[in-house]
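Bug #77: duplicate submission created two jobs. Keeping one. Sequence:
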Amino acid sequence: MNEADIPIDIHAGKLLDWLVSRRIVDKNWHLHVRNIRNKISNAITDMPAHDELLQLLSGAHINYFHCQRIVDILKMTEADTKNVFGRYGSQRMKDWQEILRMYEKDSIYLAEAAQILVRNINYEIPGIRKQIKHLEQLSEEAEKKINDLGRSEKVVYGEYMMMCKQLDVSGNNLRQELVQKVFNDLPGMFEKVASSVGPVKKAIELYASFVGSQECLPLLRHVVAKGNTTVYEYVYGEPPLKVEQPTVKFQVPVNDEDAGAIDFGDDGAAEIDFGDENIDFDAPVELEVGDIDWGGAAAEAALEADAGNEIDFNISLEESGIVVEQDGNAGGLAKGNEAYTVLDAPKYRENFLNDLLELQAFLKMRLYQLGSSDKVQLLSLTMMDSFPDHDEKSLTKMLAEVEVVYTGLTEDLLQHLHQIKHSPQYVDILTSNVQQKLTSIEKMKDTAKALKEKSINFRQQSVELKPTQMKIIEQTKTLQGQIEKDISKRYKNRIVNLYGTNV
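Kept job's structure:
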């Protein structure tokens, strides 16, 4: 085989070492490149107006092959400065011809071109590719977060609508709606619960037979017999003549958007005046009785002093100022906690619930006993044999009736409204909890909007980098071909292959 037909294969990453090992370039070539680069920087400042020159100078790193093309262009633009000896009088031409000579000395240009090629292959092109991929990945992650936020937004909004549904409000003016429901709906809700207590009477009688006392479950018995009366009537056994419930004061903010909001308080204080909360209505009444003076010198002296006074028996009760209280169940003034109904007053409401739970536990225990196969070992079963007839079906019905009352009184909306009435600060807490859902939704929307802008920005940056990548790849391929051609000339035009470029 002819030597000219044998190709020269050189790994692109080891091209510079190959050139140094073949003594084509000096190992200290880089010491002379700085002077050439300075010379190029000075020469660029004085260039003629030419489109191709502008394109060359606006490109990447200017190398020897660029300088060759610049000199070819200057031969046309500076042709009028050429003398009879074929030399150019233009300083521009002289500068660039000097640059070419400096490059060609010891083949410095080839070493620099090899360095540029290796740098582009190993760093520039992979770096841009990695950056484009990273930007596209960031854009995709932002889009994924936007989709996740969209799903979370729907979930939170569903929770918000569910809370509004549970509170039976529209949510347009949540605080005002809740305050209005305290006054408009809460009394009716208590009456509805009280009306469901009647069927529990049979269960109460069964439990009373079991414990052997007709005084058990006092509050439950009272509501069954008389309904949801005032605490005063429960404590004293007679209805009051007059009821003065404690003033419930709410501070409802009024602003431009909420014009016409109702202010339920005169001084804006968000508190309930419960009166004297330290009064124990179940405690016995203690009367302070002073010492009675049954006679003595002072009494005799008083009788003597009044001996001359006559009593007028024609004075009416109205003129005398004496008030005669009526007899029977006429009652008196119910105020403070006594003015609340037994299902409304916190203390008595809790006692009522305890009665329900006690009755519920008894019925469940009795159902378990009737359903147990080992009835002989159950002492309480023997104790119940003498009580009125009942079976699992009747007990199940009783238990269901008790649970209806308990469920009605512990229903979420009723408990929220009851808490608001007896602690007006609670309406702010409840409103804040509900409004927090809307705040979270707004934050999600803002975050999604910011992520959308970032996603677009990342995508735009990756698009803008792609032309730069293609340009560097094109320049690298051109430089590779120029290096292969130059080395081929040095080896009798043998084919030179630079492999491992991956561009």
